[in-house]
Each structure stands twice: as structure tokens, then as C-alpha cells.
Amino acid sequence: MENYNAALGDLRRALALDPNHFRALDAMAKILVLVGEKKAALAAYEKLLLVHPNIEGGKEALEELKKEVEGQGI
What we know:
- The protein is mainly α.
- The chain has 4 helices and no strands.
- It starts with a helix and ends with a helix.
């Protein structure tokens, strides 16, 4: 239904109860990317990979966001 703000609120409440809930972290990171909050998404992916280092697509998403947020460098 694309009600991302409500979904983010629900995810934040879930993470307040369980900060290591990897499914909530994954969903939050993906939604933050969709709404253009790339720095926040990067932080969510970093936390997600601490909790679940082998989650499918997590490392790739993190690396892509790092390039977008921090730049490519020289």
C-alpha cells in the first residue's frame, strides 16, 4: 500500500523491543532506500550485517549504498 511512514514506525517499535530483529532491520533498510534516506539505510544495513552477516543480498546492498553515500574515492 506504499504507506512507508507507517511501516517505518512499526519497524522502529519492533526494534525498540528487539534491537537485533534481523527481519525488521532488513525491512527498514529496504524501505529507507525506497524513500531516499540513504544514510539511514546505510546505518540499518550495517547493523543488519552485524546481527546477520550472511543475509542474502546484504553485503551487496551495503557496498552499493556506501558508493552512493560516501562516493567512489580516487
